[in-house]
Design brief:
- By secondary structure, the protein is α/β, with parallel strands linked by helices.
- It contains 9 helices and 7 strands.
- A 7-stranded mixed β-sheet has the order 3-2-1-4-5-7-6, with helices on both faces.
- The longest helix is centred in the last third of the chain and has 28 residues.
- The chain is globular, with a radius of gyration of 18 Å.
- The chain starts with a helix and ends in a 6-residue tail after the last strand.
- The relative contact order is 0.16.
Length: 266
Amino acid sequence: YNLSNEYFSLFLDESMTYSCAIFSRGAKTLEEAQRTKLELVCTKLDLKPGQRVLDVGCGWGSFALHAAREHGVHVTGITLSEPQAELARQRAQEAGLADRVDIRVMDYRELSGEPYDAIASIGMVEHVGSVNIDTYFATLAALVRPGGRILNHGIARLRVGDPEAGPFSERYVFPDAAPLHLSRIQAAVERAGLHTIHVEDFPEDYARTLLEWKRRFESNIDRAREIAGDQRVRVWRIYLRVARQNFETGFMSPYQVLAVRPSLLA
């Protein structure tokens, strides 16, 4: 994620959303599909004006900006990437949302203080891994108020017995990435005392998203080489093709899991 902001802008949509877009609800363009995804997350979280929302793994701020602008909430976004945070803050300032969007460079385990009304985790759970997944959801459960909702959007493996991540992806594209089975994620949700109220997957949507990213990347291939060099461009071409095949063949699928903290959770 620290390659450069411009590099990612060569294939992402204008909102700089680096996760599955949703075309299956009528969107025709990548921009429309990403707005559909962001709004769907807001709708599932049942956001209300004035609420405090946590965006875990906020990236370049697409969800934080959308939620603050369209739903009048106050969003705290956290990322481990300083270039991401810098651009997200700039975008919030330019959109007149700096008073409602707070972007921080920090680990989720460093958060404390007043609980949030809702939490969005979009494209973050893949980086948690089996060792930390129980701690992850226990931490989120402690950070949301009783009755508050948590929306986890992330990739899950579908085949039992496969390794957490392939050596190519882990070495060249997503270091430390470890997509888990949905059953393992759900076990962590339940161990944290959270109640799951909705699960939905979008494999065809992610395949189409990756196809659109590939088309845009190829149209900007010369600039990509100038920024990152030939080797990085070769890696990204392979990644965009193989990742799409993973969703088309049933190797992986992106899931949205919506859970609520029961009012009696200690």
